[in-house]
Design brief:
This protein has 341 residues and is an alpha/beta fold. The protein is 39% helix and 15% strand.
């Protein structure tokens, strides 16, 4: 294999349905390349692998392009062009100084502009965590550009009757993590004190709760970290930590600071349905789903709210970082979805 891509690494990236004889006949998988492109008034860093129909992979928080490294090789090997950008505010991409430059209109605009900047006319868009609302909204607004959509961990949610943060306040909720992230500087100070510890704590190290305990920040109580899970390598974690040492946490936190602003903007497309082919994947142990009957009901209602939905896949025992934790199942489902388009 070229560029140091080992046979073992390729096997880890391929879906379960590809056998060893198939691998022997498969085309050589090109390496991941990196470049910067100008879109929508910002410069985005993108990682690319493979040739063929375009698949854009939108990461969440706190992540970067590397969130998708298991998927990129599998997609390239299956005949697709996988492109994973650092979204605005993350990694090597631009981080505009003003908070109001991180609305859903901006982030979807970035992905729409990226299609043309890559010399393509259409793409399939895939998103995880914060990338999921970007993918869902991109499919809503630009069916001409995004011919299909896949999302992980965050389902499609209809616009509610009032701004989300206002709704929390009126319900007497004051310690939800969205609220903690609102005041500039507070969460940044906590998370940037030790980016390595912060990312380890969030991704695997501590039992994080979405409702913060009194006198605790987002990272919770100062308890020893759990053992690093086998699905997360030190090398992979170091890549993410390096990205946050470079960028800080402010850009990603600014996405949260536009939650109510996004509600106001989304009135313009409220009620638009997603009729393109759609796939949703989540883990039964995802912190957003576990013990949350409301979220489970939203997921179960998606055949109605997303008429194009072809499959909802619950991966038993998988947590929130599903494409890292369970790459074989995710890759198999994603490639099966793509080949059926």
């Amino acid at each position: 294999m070229r560029s140091g891509i080992s046979r073992r690494a390729v096997l880890a990236a391929l879906p379960l349905t590809m056998s060893l004889p198939s691998l022997a006949m498969a085309p050589e998988i090109p390496p991941i390349t990196h470049r910067h492109v100008e879109v929508n008034g910002v410069t985005l860093h993108v990682a690319e692998q493979g040739t063929g129909p375009l698949v854009i992979l939108c990461h969440g928080w706190p992540e970067c392009w590397h969130s998708w490294h298991h998927q990129m090789g599998a997609l390239a090997g299956a005949g697709y062009r996988a492109v994973a950008p650092d979204q605005r505010g993350f990694g090597e991409s631009d981080a505009p100084p003003d908070i109001d430059q991180y609305t859903i209109a901006h982030t979807v605009g970035d992905m729409a502009g990226l299609v043309g900047a890559l010399g393509e006319k259409q793409a399939v868009i895939v998103g995880h965590d914060w990338g999921a609302p970007v993918a869902w909204t991109a499919a809503q607004l630009r069916p001409d550009l995004f011919r299909a959509v896949a999302a992980m961990s965050v389902p499609f949610v209809h616009r509610g009757p009032k701004p989300p943060l206002q709704g929390l306040r009126e319900a007497g909720v004051t310690r939800y993590y969205w609220q903690y992230f609102q005041t500039p500087g507070i969460a940044e100070t906590e998370l940037e004190a030790d980016p390595d510890l912060s990312l380890r704590s969030i991704i695997y190290g501590r039992e994080l709760t979405l409702m913060l305990k009194p006198d605790c920040g987002f990272l919770g109580e100062n308890v020893p970290l759990k053992q690093r899970p086998a699905w997360l390598s030190e090398e992979g974690l170091a890549t993410v930590v390096a990205a946050y040492r470079r960028s800080g946490f402010r850009g990603g936190l600014n996405w949260y600071r536009n939650i109510d602003r996004n509600w106001g903007l989304s009135g313009a497309w409220d009620g638009l349905q997603i009729r393109q082919p759609a796939l949703f994947i989540t883990g039964t142990d995802d912190v957003l789903l576990r013990g949350n009957s409301r979220m489970r009901s939203i997921v179960d209602a998606m055949p109605t709210t997303v008429p194009g939905l072809r499959r909802t896949l619950y991966i038993d025992g998988a947590g929130h970082w599903i494409q890292r934790e369970r790459p074989r199942e995710v890759n198999e489902a994603l490639i099966d979805f793509l080949t059926g388009l």
